[in-house]
Design brief:
By secondary structure, the protein is an all-alpha fold. Helix content is about 75%, strand content about 0%.
Length: about 190
């Protein structure tokens, strides 16, 4: 995978993007979703706002990029459990724990992924594909497409509800256990 948010970059550009993303993570932790701007991220990264906008189209693009990178940089652990339900629950709990470790990022990404920015759309498709891939891995060979879709929809809906503050990201993982068991009843 390229480290470029929007296109292939040379090594100097890649370094600039990496500095911007690191600064974005730091700024998000320091000031939160609402106060963060691309300009404040650029300042923290030591680049001009114009340079930052060359690589990051918007705040939503930044949040989606940070979420995508957090998701794929997390060590991919084999789903644990003797049954398909246990394996899927281990996946959702692990993703819930990852989100709980960075609730600012999770909240920013939740709202960002609802946007219409083309750069966000590209990342939204990658993120959704990663969710589906993890559920397929947990279910094993021959996983039913409708079941995988139901699990991805349930997880996405829970992610949205946690992003709206209706539950914590840790609670999201816990509450999904019963939802997964109900969805998978009979499979």
């Amino acid at each position: 995978m390229s480290s470029a948010p929007r296109r292939e970059l040379n090594p100097r550009q890649t370094e600039t993007v990496d500095r911007l993303l690191q600064a974005g993570t730091e700024e998000l932790r320091a000031v939160g979703v609402e106060a963060l701007t691309i300009r404040t991220v650029a300042l923290r990264a030591g680049v001009s706002a114009a340079t930052a906008y060359t690589y990051l189209a918007s705040k939503n693009h930044l949040f989606a990029e940070l979420f995508w990178r957090a998701l794929i940089s997390e060590p991919r652990v084999e789903p644990a459990g003797d049954t398909a339900v246990e394996r899927v629950c281990s996946v959702t709990r692990r993703m819930g724990a990852m989100l709980a470790e960075s609730p600012e990022l999770a909240a920013g990404a939740t709202s960002a992924l609802l946007g219409t920015d083309p750069d966000v759309e590209r990342l939204r498709l990658r993120i959704g594909s990663e969710f589906v891939s993890r559920f397929r891995d947990a279910l094993g060979a021959g996983a039913d497409d409708a079941l995988v879709d139901a699990l991805a929809l349930a997880f996405s809906g829970a992610l949205l509800q946690a992003g709206m503050g209706l539950m914590t990201y840790t609670e999201m993982g816990e509450r999904l256990d019963a939802v997964i068991a109900a969805i998978m009843k009979g499979h």
